[in-house]
Amino acid sequence: MIPGTHHGTLFLMLRRMRAPLILLIVIFAISVLGLTIVPGFDEHGNPARMSFFHAFYFISYTATTIGFGEVPNAFSEQQRMWATMCIYMSVVGWAYTLGTLFGLFQDKNFRHALRIERFARAVRRLQEPFFLVCGYGETGSRLIRALDRMGMRVVVVEVDEIKAGELELQAYHADIPTLVADARHPEILRLAGLTNPNCRGVMALTNDDIVNLSIAIAARLLAPKLPALCRSESTETSANMASFGTSHIINPLQKFGEYLELALHAPAAFHFLEWLTGEPGITVKPHRDPPHGRWLLCGYGNFGRILTQSLRAEGVEVTVIDQGSPPDDFVGEWIRGDATCGPALRAAGVEQASGIIACVGDDVNNLSIAVTARHLRPDVFVILRQNHYSNAPLFDAFPSDLRVVSSRIVAHECLAILTTPLLVPFLEQIKHSDEAWSRSVVDRLTGRFGWNVPTIWSVRINSEHAPALFRKMMPAGPKITLEALLRDPSNRAHALECEVLYIIRTDDKAILLPESDSELRAGDQLLVVGRREARGALALTLENPNTLDYVLTGKDMPGGWVWEKLASRRAA
């Protein structure tokens, strides 16, 4: 059911209940009219007829209850006979009405209309910023869990009723409005808050590239200023999205190919990227660096083609094992066979290979390839593709060196783009940095904060996000350095457990890993990494003038208007 408007629930109910309500009204009218016509007696025994008011009163309580007696006087035999007929007529009318009403509540279309109405009302009541997530699969669940941990609100549209039901079973901190509907329809996206002023971004994370393309087009036309993050696993769909000006197109297979290239020529930068873009609360386990030499690639689909190009771009020799025939444009060694069996791996030279990639479309076959390869060559570097999140326990049990999980890649990319926009340009600079420099930075930061995924946030020095610091700087305030600002507001002798990674000036000048004596300027954007407690402490410093003065000068000024007046009078 695709609603043209979501305000027709009442009219749908009235249409379905039209006949029962008309029948009740007719029965009520005939009963009242009959009571006013049938002769009776007054309290003195004189002939009298019942007034319309008393007739209406009697039928009202008789039709809805067991009755309170005969009013205003004892009934005559004729009145009692008519009252008996009215009782049976009202029973029939109410039975028909209630049966129709219960049937209406069981009607699929009516229940769907009610859900849409409740969903639209819940979205309209959201007063804080939220993100619209289309698709609650493996990727969506990961992303929503991470956003919920960071205190961000989410609205979900999912076409599968079972998956949407699973969302309600999760223990999220905030209620998540969820609608079971096809997100490719623009009206559904409107109801979900695409054009709501509080919507901060839309994410198309379904497993269907056509649906994701439809969402990207709708977001571009209905909310052109809103960032749209769309998943795509085909080159054609990605090109189509790009032609519509989609903000961010995330191809998890292409993205892992870029990661593999980075891991081969700059392993430390790859470790740094994993640590910064992981899910909050997760501990990143450092793995050995992928070796050069000759690699075996099992399964030459879209993913295999991408990885082959990435490996050859780094000067790595690749041998492909696949049950099909090589495509016409393939150049290199091709072994036709089943990689889950030892003969095919031996024919490809697994005993002399440096690494092997199991990237077929079946998780059990990938694990079988990896187990067989490790048996034939125990120290081979293994990259495993995990297609389904439900198989995670099996992959956790096997000691692979790298695991390719598309849902995790897309979720990490979305988090990096949405929550900390400065992280994306920072990572681009890291990818092109010197390996020795990257390793020293990784060792220093992980030595200070550990391998748990840190809290990363952005700060802009302006009147909205840092009012106290901004007023301090304007119009020609004192020189304030990073070292002076990043002190603990509870004890300025201690530094906050955070560090500034990146600064972008108002003139677009970028400073990578600024020194502690770097001077801050109004309008600067800072990318900060550290512990969660440090984020709250720094926010207090940036927003509270008294806290800022204490951090910068050590003077503990009284807070509040009354105490400030008393302190200034005492100083005078």
What does this structure look like?
Helix 9 runs parallel beside helix 10 (235-243). 49% of the residues lie in helices and 16% in strands. It is flat, with a radius of gyration of 35 Å. The longest helix is centred in the first third of the chain and has 30 residues, at 77-106. The strands form 5 sheets. It has a 6-stranded parallel sheet, sandwiched between helices. A 6-stranded parallel sheet has the order 11-10-9-12-13-14, with helices on both faces. Strands 15-20-18-19 form a 4-stranded antiparallel sheet. Helix 7 links the parallel strand 4 (153-158) and strand 5 (178-180). It folds into 4 domains: 9-109, Helix Hairpins; 126-250, NAD(P)-binding Rossmann-like Domain (Rossmann fold, 3-Layer(aba) Sandwich); 253-427, Rossmann fold (3-Layer(aba) Sandwich), CATH 3.40.50.720; 454-571, 2-Layer Sandwich (Alpha-Beta Plaits). The chain is α/β, with parallel strands linked by helices.
Main pleated sheet: 6 strands, parallel
CATH superfamily of the largest domain: NAD(P)-binding Rossmann-like Domain
Strand segment tally: 20
The CATH topology name of the largest domain reads: Rossmann fold
What characteristics describe this protein?
572 residues, alpha/beta, Helix Hairpins, Rossmann fold, 4 domains, 6-stranded parallel beta sheet, 49% helix, flat, disordered N terminus
